[in-house]
Amino acid sequence: MDLPFDNPIVRLWQEIETAGGSLEDAIPKVRDPSFASILTEADITELHEMLESGEMSEDSAPLLLLLYQAAGVADHLSALVRRAPMLTLARSIPARGAQALQLRTEILDLALGLTSRGEAELWSAIANSLAGVRAQLGQYGAALPLLEEALAICRELAAAEPAAYRPDVAGTLNNLGTVLSDLGERAGAKAAYEEALAIRRELAAAEPAAFRPDVAMTVNNLGNVLSELGDQAGAKAAYEEALAIYRELAAAEPAAFRPDVAMTLNNLGAVLSRLGDRAAAKATYEETLAIYREL
């Protein structure tokens, strides 16, 4: 990894990699006060700027965690531990495989620990992101309390400034519905999706371009949970609504929304099959397959 400056964190990571070590070996070293004491503001800022500039790659991603671990220990650099950039950078790590997801988890955990509840908007944003990564890793029990607390914060913010924060309430409810569904709490998931959908319908009525994709996503999610609850007719109606929206969106932006058309068609095919409408299910799966082959 060649960088246009000489950086102690990079040197340390290169030495550990060369010796066949891992992040687990590097973190105690960067958190050692004697190592932190040699870091300068330039060491932190130039590395931070390089990562924040969009030059992040899967190979350089571990530098992000080491950077913030080191800066968090170095009292003379504590002002440089900026939580919002940590959130941005954590999201920029390529999400391929368990190792990348685990790295995101560690960075977001660190960011959350450095953020006070008084910084409500930032805390809830980090908590939402962390819950999403934990859910991807199958850690639904750990994701649930994060989302519940984030939702409480978003509701408080929205009570004071509904225009600014109602989308956050809806987004957190949608995420909560997904985690509750994964935990097998279908009734709770249904209630969360229904509340999220009501808010997103309102928002889409005022700003369709911004919020119609969110309506389609939540309707599709609601269809999933209705099907799991045995309400196949309700699920069919939900999938048909989501499909109509995704078709409309895909007509304008096929690259962005054709995968969603295929996903919803596949869900609809499953429900049609359960309802005994085999011919319609076959036609739906055939259209799904044609799109996926193209993609």
Textual characterization of the structure:
By secondary structure, the chain is mainly alpha-helical. The protein contains 15 helices and no strands. The chain has helices at 8-18, 23-30, 33-38, 41-52, 61-73, 83-92, 97-113, 120-136, 140-160, 162-182, 186-206, 208-228, 232-252, 254-274, 278-294. Helix 6 runs parallel beside helix 8 (120-136), helix 10 (162-182) packs parallel to helix 12 (208-228) and helix 11 (186-206) runs antiparallel to helix 12. The two termini are 34 Å apart.
Alpha carbon gap, first and last residue: 34 Å
Sheet/helix structural class: mainly alpha
Give the strand content.
Answer: under 5%
Q: Over the alpha carbons, how many angstroms does the gyration radius reach?
A: 23 Å
> Please, what is the oligomeric state?
single chain
Order of helices and strands: HHHHHHHHHHHHHHH
Helices and strands, with pairings:
Elements: H1 8-18, H2 23-30, H3 33-38, H4 41-52, H5 61-73, H6 83-92, H7 97-113, H8 120-136, H9 140-160, H10 162-182, H11 186-206, H12 208-228, H13 232-252, H14 254-274, H15 278-294
Helix pairs in contact: 1-2, 2-5, 4-5, 5-7, 6-7, 6-8, 7-8, 8-9, 9-10, 10-11, 10-12, 11-12, 12-13, 13-14, 14-15
In short:
The protein has 295 residues and is mostly helical. The chain is built from 15 helices and no strands.
List keywords for this structure.
295 residues; mainly alpha
